[in-house]
Task: inverse folding
């Protein structure tokens, strides 16, 4: 992927997604069940626990996505962006448009079962 026009487009897309993730993380407010204090009710406790698990999973997913975006920006700087990390073949433009942080081609991702 040596085309500067495409690289700039993907870089802008990556930076925009990075800003979006940072803004969403900074503005997130986590509260207990029903938006307030968690009472002694078992249902409230179960709901609060479920919300905590979901929040932790979402936070983990945002962290993974932030790392993938940072790695994609490093690959752009190194000149290896758009090359599959697994097989070395080019990643399709359609895949990069959909997932600009992708580091593997579709075939390799399917082989991994992801």
Result:
């Amino acid at each position: 992927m040596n085309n500067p026009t495409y690289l700039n487009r993907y870089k802008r897309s990556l930076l925009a997604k990075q800003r979006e993730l940072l803004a969403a993380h900074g503005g997130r407010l986590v509260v207990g069940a029903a938006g307030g204090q968690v009472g002694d009710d078992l249902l409230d406790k179960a709901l609060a626990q479920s919300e905590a698990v979901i929040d932790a999973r979402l936070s983990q997913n945002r962290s993974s996505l932030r790392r993938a975006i940072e790695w994609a920006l490093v690959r752009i700087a190194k000149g290896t962006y758009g090359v599959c990390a697994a097989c070395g073949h080019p990643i399709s433009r359609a895949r990069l448009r959909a997932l600009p942080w992708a580091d593997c081609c579709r075939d390799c991702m399917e082989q991994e079962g992801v």
Q: What stands out?
A: The two ends are 24 Å apart (CA to CA).
